[in-house]
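HUMAN: You are asked to prepare a plain-text protein record giving the amino acid sequence and the backbone structure tokens, both parts labelled.

ASSISTANT:
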Amino acid sequence: MFKKLTLLTLTVAAIVGCGGDDNNDEARLRVFHASPDAPNVDVLVDGGSVLENVPYAAASEFLPLTAGKRRITVTAAGTNTAVIDAELELGHNSDNLVVAAGKVDEIAPIVTTADRSAPPEGSARVRVLHAAASAPAVDVYVTAPGAEIGGVEPVLSNVPFRAISDYLTVPAGSYDVTVTVAGTNNIAIQALNLAISDGLVATVAALDSTGGGAPFALKVLDER
């Protein structure tokens, strides 16, 4: 089920490529800083700066680039010290998410595409990203507000670090989202009465606290 392989106030230094969602020569790229003990970072595409001084737990908008093979480099802010240097193939008219994940001594990119099309009326489409470097594999429960998880089957089971689920389509409404250590009822993260709005398309990311470790938290990355 899982394919291995964004707080939005970033400084956009430059955008490579041309605009327009109907341009088949265009690809769109979002970068998410999910390395808890890494410094702020700069992001370069083919050697040109596109994002500067990005803090932990922040993500860019979907930036328009020219589709094709692109070199993505992430450096410590204001330096030439690369923490990620990867060549990616960005498909024509595609939406792409690159996550800088893991503690700084083992940081590596998680790369996936995003489905930003509208969900059915009255529903939302969400997926879960395990980007909490200090957490073990987890189970994810989505329940009515105030409901207990005892005796309830998780919607996602045994999700390892760096995994991202398929999208789940759910009715719009309010939910309790509970993340437990896999195979137990030991709660690692809980978001109570989380509002899932009609038409929402999002990645929900589990993250360490700044510097690494607990308390863990969920970040909802709106992809619309």
